[in-house]
Specification:
single chain; mainly alpha; about 0% strand
Length: about 200
């Protein structure tokens, strides 16, 4: 006997959710968080506003959910067997995330909005910052267990040091990375973190 969806229950179609997600990212990239509206997202996605509200109760919830879904999976947790290999793959993934055609425009605007809106900032930290940093911490903890990093390493400071150079170069300075930059940065990070070996 086939079970039927209860009368009146909302059925969320994956194709519609994908269209809305793409529309949110496009609107964020073009308009920024402050000017983004549920109406504009619905129009771009080719749906009614009710389709948005069935998924998220507010604009903030919608934006955070979409940006989180885009960002968190891109925080990889490589396990190459060496700190150098893990760092290099992490930097590649970080570069891809920050250099994404849409996200490279979204992040600076979102960061500015977070400075004006502490509530938004707290939600972004919980939904995006903490999950991404947790994956990064696992890389460092494995290196400590292998004896490649000192046992008393300040993980929070180390995570800041790893992410900061690429973010500063791309998102703040709006510069580019010359060939060999990531290899040089990997070597610098190994020394800064107090790695026992540079190999």
């Amino acid at each position: 006997m086939t079970r039927r969806t209860p009368t009146g229950a909302a059925v969320l179609q994956p194709e519609t959710t994908k269209s809305i997600t793409e529309a949110v990212l496009d609107e964020l990239a073009e308009q920024g968080y402050g000017r983004l509206s549920m109406e504009a997202v619905a129009k771009r996605a080719g749906v009614g506003k009710s389709a948005l509200y069935r998924r998220w109760p507010s604009k903030q919830d919608m934006v955070i959910a979409v940006v989180s879904e885009f960002s968190v999976p891109r925080a990889i947790d490589p396990d190459t067997g060496s700190l150098r290999g893990d760092l290099r793959e992490t930097l590649d993934a970080l570069l891809e995330w920050l250099n994404h055609p849409r996200f490279s425009r979204i992040l600076p605007d979102l960061a500015a909005e977070m400075a004006r809106n502490p509530e938004l900032g707290a939600v972004v930290e919980t939904m995006i910052g903490i999950p991404r940093r947790t994956r990064g911490a696992e890389i460092l903890q494995r290196a400590i267990a292998r004896g490649e990093l000192p046992a008393d390493l300040d993980l929070e400071l180390a995570l800041d040091v790893i992410a900061a150079p690429i973010y500063w170069r791309l998102s703040v300075r709006r510069g580019h990375l010359e060939p060999g930059y990531l290899d040089s940065l990997t070597g610098l990070l190994l020394r800064a973190l107090g790695a026992t070996s540079d190999t």
